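I am writing to request your help with a piece of structural work I have in hand. Here, with my thanks, is the record as I have it:
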Amino acid sequence: MTTFSNIRPSPIAGRWYEGDPQRLAEGVDAYLTKAKLPELAGEVVGVIAPHAGHIYSGETAGYAFSAVKGKTYPIVAIFSPLHNFHPAPILTTAHSAYRTPLGDMEVEENILAELEEKLQPHGVSLGRIANDQEHSLEIELPFLQRALVGEFKLLPLMVRSNDPDLLCNLGEAVAESLKGKVCLLVASTDLSHFHSEEKAAKLDGEMMRQICSFSPEGVLQAEKTGKGSACGAGAVAAVLWAAKKLGAVSVMPLYHSTSGKTTGDYDSVVGYGAAVILK
């Protein structure tokens, strides 16, 4: 295992997911194995996956990451929200690697530097954050570690903005930086929060319709108008713009669930969706 001197320590291992490596690996593998996918008509460019604790959204995440099970992607670009306040609209890590109980993953610093250079003409810079408490990016890492074959480097991006121009510039700049490289895009988002199961079905259905219509503009508009809901709408939109630039042509829904399946409380649920982006 490669060692790094500046590692982001996990603030959520042992709480949001298993802290014991063997139990974590077994749990993630079970989610990946349980997911039964339709035939995927194309090459996987990216996935959209939820980011709640594994006991709540792990089953749904299993569908997203089973679409890349056994595949090799030397670079994985993860777009997530940042749930805490920060003045920068787009953030990345100040660390050289991320750590989970399953091991360390190196940050792709060269591409981050190239991305910053491409964003400068648009007046956008990447804020660097150390020791962040953000769960939405990290929660996907054990799935990637168990699903993918071989080591991979991370391009971690935390999105606080829902501005279409900024997100389009971000997505296209990421695509330009990744052009010609074997890479995977990951959009981390949950759907509606704390509505009844019936209302969640409507809000989640509209958001998934926009996602699967391959419409980043529609995703942002649904969030803005309240017709749909996703805490990572900005992250999803940026990934869709990046995927278009990388040649993707379609988005396929894979699975939807809510927290009610775990808690038994259907009066106040959180929605989770999984989808795959194809070319």
Q: What stands out?
A: The CA atoms of residues 76 and 134 lie 18 Å apart.
